[in-house]
Design goal:
- The chain has eight helices and nine strands.
- The strands form two sheets. A seven-stranded parallel β-sheet has the order 3-2-1-4-5-6-9, with helices on both faces.
- By secondary structure, it is α/β, with parallel strands linked by helices.
- About 40% of the residues are buried.
- β2, α2 and β3 form a beta-alpha-beta unit.
- The chain is globular and about 50 Å long.
- The protein has one domain: 3-Layer(aba) Sandwich (Rossmann fold), CATH 3.40.50.720.
- The N and C termini lie far apart (about 55 Å).
Length: about 250
């Protein structure tokens, strides 16, 4: 369906899976990540499958790098905003720079790339944007407060764009995975999802024009339940889990 696709955060994890799946479907690729040497190796492999693979080594938290990627994002049929960053720890205990980087990458860069791509896609009358969020968007996230809030932004932002872009023939979808194994062959199960299945579910959803995709039956069941749980109870449960994590960390340090 997509002739050309840009994948950010393509050097590893779900982003690498997006790139491989899209190449298998014959899409030419623009691969974006900080680690240029890793991208070059991936691009060389994908070119062996008969597709073009362009490497854009860029740190999307840097204005000049983001501007370069923005210009290229206006030229693709599918934008996969996969790049993201999460810092774990108490909000006041982590460096402010960690929080700033999360907001810059997870929110600002995603918003700017979406803006560049959507305007061009709407003018052409076709295209897709897949924004990677998280089930963390649906519940308090003590220990990763900025990350959870940034993913809540992604979900809300994407749902609004989905409505705006639909009439122009552009599909905008939020992908909301739960815990995902980022290594090949890592065990999955009740809690953990495999990265390739997550990527495949996201691509299928944006192709079908869905507003949101929650991979995994367990997480698809969880999200509507969270919406029904009173906010106070959600905070109480998340607080208990946070305290247990802190206690586990304390015992490990002893």
């Amino acid at each position: 369906m997509w002739r050309t696709a840009m994948v950010t955060g393509a050097s590893s994890g779900i982003g690498e899976s997006f790139a491989r799946l899209l190449a298998a479907r014959g899409a030419d690729l623009v691969l974006v990540a900080r680690r240029g040497e890793v991208l070059e190796a991936l691009a060389a492999e994908l070119r062996g499958r008969g597709v073009r693979a362009e490497v854009l080594a860029a740190d999307l938290t840097l204005p000049d790098d983001l501007a370069r990627v923005r210009a290229r994002a206006a030229e693709v049929d599918l934008l996969v905003n996969n790049a993201g960053f999460g810092a774990f720890g108490g909000f006041a205990e982590l460096p402010a720079d960690d929080h700033r980087r999360q907001v810059t990458l997870n929110v600002t860069a995603l918003m700017e790339l979406s803006h560049a791509a959507l305007g061009a896609m709407a003018a052409r009358g076709r295209g897709g944007i897949l924004n990677v969020a998280s089930v963390a968007a649906y519940a308090p996230s003590p220990g990763s407060a900025v990350y959870g809030a940034s993913k809540a932004f992604v979900v809300s932002f994407t749902e609004s764009l989905h409505v705006e872009a639909k009439a122009a023939g552009v599909h905008v979808t939020a992908l909301c995975p739960g815990f995902t194994r980022t290594e090949d062959g890592a065990p999955t199960g009740l809690v953990w999802l495999g990265r390739e299945k997550v990527a495949a579910a996201g691509l299928a959803a944006v192709e079908r024009g869905k507003d949101r995709c929650v991979p995994g039956a367990q997480y698809r069941a969880l999200v509507p339940v969270l919406a029904l749980v009173p906010a106070g109870l959600r905070r109480t449960v998340s607080g208990v889990l946070w305290r247990r994590l802190l206690e586990a960390e304390r015992r490990r340090d002893l």
